[in-house]
Amino acid sequence: MTVPNENNFCGGAFDDWLEVMLTPKCNGKCEWCVERNGFHPKHKARVGELIDIIHRNAAKKVILLGGEPTLYKHLRELVSALGQPHDAWIQGQEVFTMPPKKVYLTTNGHSFNADFVAENLSLLTGVNVSIHHYGLECNKGITGITLDENTIEDAVIACRRNNITVRFNCNIIKGEVDSWGGITRFIKWAQERGVTSVRFSELMGDGRKFISLVDVVPYSETYGLSENPYVKGCNQNAEILGSRVNFRQMCGIQTECRVTPINPKSVNVKKVLYYDGKYYNGWQSQRRQQ
What we know:
Layout: E1 17-21, H1 47-56, E2 61-65, H2 75-82, E3 86-90, E4 93-98, E5 102-107, H3 114-120, E6 126-130, H4 136-143, H5 149-161, E7 165-171, H6 180-192, E8 197-201, H7 213-216, H8 229-232, E9 235-240, E10 243-248, E11 271-274, E12 279-281
Helix pairs in contact: 1-2, 3-5
């Protein structure tokens, strides 16, 4: 039996996080999207039900995902409710007040502007903006989303005013950002937009455009990168050019480009809360189970 690294999602790390698949809707066109053929229940729970379910979950940190979560029409109500203290109930009796959840959101950036931040996201803890190229025309070709540098910069300022952290997420894609020069240029581009936290991720599932971070990052072993992230660790942090950088690797369970672990032991199968109000096995593996 192959045991995962304890710092991996499947190894038991990140237990204090609740992932919420908020909507299947997306206005992007990413070819490698893990949700394109994902499980999409027909029922949609009312926003009040979702709020109650999330409040009752013991996790202190919540990350809102999709689809594209900013397309969820009750986003403002949801973020506002989760970002404030709430009453805890036991058998119908109010017993104590719980602190607010730390709420994060991952978006393709189509609504990432100062007005949207102020009106809908003011109680967020952090926002992750998925931008897969420092050339925004190239990013549009990848995602189908039109972004503007000035709008992004204004949104970052609005986040800073509301104490919301911002991170740019960039996938390493063959033919796009697929070299050390591309990585460092992306980091500098993010810094010019006022963002000093960046994540670089390998692709899940798509073998045609997969690039190994081991082949891209010089002295990769010094950052903890390896061709066996299931055992060695799939989630590594570093400081590069003055920015906080996170590297996210895929193991052989998640991509055909790496050897599948022999008889892998998943210590912790992360459950994802879906928009129907039910928990399902999440997308840390390619094959989703209901």
